[in-house]
Write a structure and sequence with these properties.
Order of helices and strands: HHHHHH
Largest sheet: none
Oligomer: single chain
Number of strands: 0
Distance between the termini: 22 Å
Number of helices: 6
């Protein structure tokens, strides 16, 4: 791949990361006044509360960090150890209060953004 093509890909990736980071900040801002009671309320997803959705977003971000870290090492990573573990983590995490749910999501988002920022070309071209 030519240097020009590499720059184009890097610029495109940067645009996507900036767009995602902006969306992350809008999401976090929308959660500022979320209450414990609201976290227990049903989401639009069948059998999932808002707490389930927030926990899913956090664990999904963590899973993408793992995929990028695997790719950096030249390994093919699994997004989740198993579907059962994924589901149990979401179910257990969904029961927390709003403050804990939001902090968990915030930390996962920042971890994902840090992984994006530190990923090398090998990571971006890896497979999961």
């Amino acid at each position: 791949m030519s240097e020009s093509e590499q720059r184009k890909i890097a610029n495109l990736l940067n645009e996507h990361v900036v767009g995602c980071a902006s969306a992350h900040q809008r999401l976090l801002a929308s959660l500022e006044n979320l209450t414990d009671e609201q976290c227990r309320q049903d989401s639009l997803l069948p059998n999932w509360s808002r707490g389930h959705v927030l926990t899913h977003l956090a664990r999904n971000a963590d899973s993408h960090v793992h995929l990028l870290q695997s790719a950096v090492r030249g390994e093919v990573g699994k997004q989740y150890p198993s579907i059962e573990k994924r589901n149990a983590d979401i179910e257990n995490g969904a029961q927390r209060g709003a403050e804990d749910l939001i902090m968990d999501l915030r930390l996962s988002i920042y971890g994902l953004e840090a992984a994006w920022a530190s990923a090398n070309a090998k990571a971006w071209s890896g497979q999961g």
